[in-house]
Design brief:
Blueprint lengths: L2 H10 L3 E4 L6 E6 L2 E7 H5 L4 E5 L2 H10 L4 E3 L8 E5 L6 H17 L3 H8 L4
Antiparallel strand pairs: 1-2, 2-3, 3-4, 4-6, 5-6
InterPro entries: YjbR, YjbR-like_sf, YjbR/MT2646/Rv2570-like
Protein name: MmcQ-like protein
């Protein structure tokens, strides 16, 4: 998956914005101002094509066991709750999409009632 396809998919999720809150190289996707995905663009351009995705702790460990060379605890993030996924690896594209959806859904599930109502009232 190339960066444009990845960005387009993430932005297709309801209420998602793309921002650079840390520096000009770290693209962050948020839903209702909560992060669900990060991409290091400078590293991406150099061939290290990873996306950091939120995950429940037990599921994060399962994924790391299933794909030991392609999924691991996210650098500079809580490794308990975030995985780095090698986008162009043994992780099938459909599985990557599922993991992005899972991260988004996990963040949405933890929004406040008011935030969920605001999200539901947005146009798709």
């Amino acid at each position: 998956m190339n960066i444009e396809a990845l960005q387009n998919y993430c932005l297709s999720k309801k209420g998602t914005t793309a921002e650079f809150p840390f520096d000009e190289h770290t693209l962050v996707f948020k839903v209702m101002n909560k992060m669900f995905a990060l991409v290091g663009l400078e590293k991406w351009e150099s061939g290290n094509q990873f996306i950091n995705l939120k995950c429940e702790p037990d599921k994060a460990l399962e994924l790391r066991d299933e794909f030991p060379d392609d999924i691991y605890g996210a650098y500079h993030m809580s490794k308990k709750h975030w995985n780095s996924v090698n986008v162009n690896s043994n992780v099938p594209a459909k599985r990557l999409i599922t993991l992005i959806d899972y991260s988004y859904d996990l963040v949405v599930a933890n929004l406040t009632k008011k935030q969920k109502e605001s999200l539901n009232n947005l146009d798709s």
